[in-house]
Amino acid sequence: MAKIIVKTERYSYPITIETGLIHNLASFLPLKANDQVMLVTNQTLAPLYLKSLLITLEGNGIKVDHVVLPDGEQYKSLTGLEQIFASLSEKFHGRGTTLIALGGGVIGDLTGFAAACYQRGVRFIQVPTTLLAQVDAAIGGKTAINHAMSKNMIGAFHQPISVVIDLDFLQTLPKSEFISGLAEVIKYAIALDSDFFVWLENNIEDLLARDTTALRYCIRRCCELKAGIVAIDEREENGQRALLNLGHTYGHAIEVAMGYGTWLHGQAVAAGMVMAAETAKLLGQFATADIERIKVLLLRAGLPTHGPDTMTAECYLPYMQRDKKVLAGELRLILPTGIGQSEIRSGIPSHIVIKAIKHSQIS
Ligand code: NAD
Ligand code: GLY
């Protein structure tokens, strides 16, 4: 069993990674008999895993209520949030309650934000069930809902008290969703770790086959990288955590413009990373050969290397200008400076960004 500790100035909590945890989950959670819990999941996951989780929690004397939300990025909204608040209130949950997010990034972000707001803040636990959430969304305390004009626009930093990763969840994950998670995996490698990029080049087929040994190493490495960044920049204040947004400013534009859920988050991030690399190349800081390496790995993973044909390069900008990294009206982008290293850059002229997006579309 792997255990990684996320340690910030004020918080410290474990990420536990193993197989077969679901049936015995209660023993991995910082909960005791008579604790009150609200388990949040969705209509896809409830028939697969809710019963097992209720049995293990209730078997340990924990008082569990649950709320089952509709499935989809479009429910990472005020409506979804309101449903959680209504259930908490109906079942008389007080400040001592703990929310458990059983799901992917959508359920995790939504539940985390509900926990940040309910009675001015209650505890929550992440039980991520997608690759994307296991390597990224469940860790580090970014919680949010979407707004019609921009992704993750309303949210809070609120750290979970524990993250429990059962690799077995990934066996029921649809292929497209698994592949979407690989985009965030590849993001870590491009932004932070060249050795990990080489490991991915050598092991992508094993990952696609969901080989447990490959998954265990990959998820652990991503969690270590994320824990390291969160430890030095929990609230994205000194430019370190922002590096984890490589490809996201372009990708979020795709997600919003196409309508939430049309392009999966990871697909949009994959296309966005190529656009970021093309931007870096136009600025003279990234080699053509490295763009090719990135594109080959994305394609082998089954990910796109350019955005939707229906979006012109020009129509990205209004969405990008609503990005949370915009400072005093100025766009700030995460750009690679090599495989395994990246930086935050501002003052990039719009015509360069547009040209880079066009390059990604034609190359
Ligand atoms: P998701 O939560 O929508 O899950 C994808 C789909 O897979 C859903 O239909 C879900 O019901 C289904 N599913 C989940 N686990 C399953 C399983 N084990 N078996 C079968 N089906 C399963 O999508 P996601 O990719 O996990 O998360 C995307 C979201 O995460 C986006 O909203 C993105 O903004 C957010 N995100 C947040 C952070 C963060 O730091 N907070 C980081 C990255 C992404
Ligand atoms: N997913 C980016 C971050 O957590 O900062």
Automatic annotation (TrEMBL):
NAD(+) binds at residues 71-76, 105-109, 129-130, 142, 151, 169-172. It catalyses: 7-phospho-2-dehydro-3-deoxy-D-arabino-heptonate = 3-dehydroquinate + phosphate. The keyword Amino-acid biosynthesis applies. Keywords: Amino-acid biosynthesis, Aromatic amino acid biosynthesis, Cobalt, Cytoplasm, Lyase, Metal-binding, NAD, Nucleotide-binding, Zinc. It is found in: Cytoplasm. Its EC number is 4.2.3.4. One of its GO terms (biological process) is chorismate biosynthetic process. Zn(2+) binds at residues 184, 248, 265. One of its GO terms (cellular component) is cytoplasm. Catalyzes the conversion of 3-deoxy-D-arabino-heptulosonate 7-phosphate (DAHP) to dehydroquinate (DHQ). Belongs to the sugar phosphate cyclases superfamily. Dehydroquinate synthase family. HAMAP family: DHQ_synthase (MF_00110). This is 3-dehydroquinate synthase. It comes from Candidatus Regiella insecticola LSR1.
